[in-house]
Amino acid sequence: xxxxxxxxxxxxxxxxxxxxxxxxxxxxxxxxxxxxxxxxxxxxxxxxxxxxxxxxxxxxxxxxxxxxxxxxxxxxxxxxxxxxxxxxxxxxxxxxxxxxxxxxxxxxxxxxxxxxxxxxxxxxxxxxxxxxxxxxxxxxxxxxxxxxxxxxxxxxxxxxxxxxxxxxxxxxxxxxxxxxxxxxxxxxxxxxxxxxxxxxxxxxxxxxxxxxxxxxxxxxxxxxxxxxxxxxxxxxxxxxxxxxxxxxxxxxxxxxxxxxxxxxxxxxxxxxxxxxxxxxxxxxxxxxxxxxxxxxxxxxxxxxxxxxxxxxxxxxxxxxxxxxxxxxxxxxxxxx
Length: 336
Prior knowledge:
The protein is mostly helical. It has 13 helices and no strands.
């Protein structure tokens, strides 16, 4: 009886085997668990925002009229993001331990070469941003009509003050942003590729889990619809393709360490690079003040007036679908 009790469950394990007494979450229930835990994790951000807005010039009256620019600076946004995503991941891990009764290794926290995979993932994330930037630059050069006029000249002004980037204010803020995005991106990998994908694999198999988790990941970014339906749909398509790449990355490595690092540095580089250019171009402004504007553009939240629909929006899905295909073919070649 004792030996029988130690036999892992019969369902498919994506990373490490589940504990003998573990339980599976119903596949249809996973989006509702994600939504519920997300809203709970948003409470610290809401509180922090209310406090910041109330203490800003104009207070809550100005916020009621839509003016929150004085309050929602990087010094407020970054701690809010850090707390929200750390709490969201913690709530999902609590669900895994309390309800599913399985070990963290089954979520992709595998111990084999974890540090090397994480360090490699840091470089992968930066490389992804540079690759997208290179494709966009090539598109601008060879098909300028496909890129909005506002994006064709991304060069900093001639009087840019690059020395300001060596100052303590920018370096300190950049380090805080890097740490925040490593936690935020890592938390999303723990949630979507760690818990969601392994849970769906146990129910539906790996192929269905990879596809479903990528679609759900894209659906959790529907906030981009504030910039217009057409823009939002194309942006969600790109985010879904990005999720597919990270899903295959985690599947290929049988763990989430590399994907967590790559996702974190991808988000950090996509934000800090334009922030550095903006800071050099406007040295009199604080990095915290500039950050809110950069984040709006980077996340597709700038609004209908500040966003344009065009072929340039196909760069992100094109890059990540191509990389996903390459990764898939490499995995098949290894199996063969």
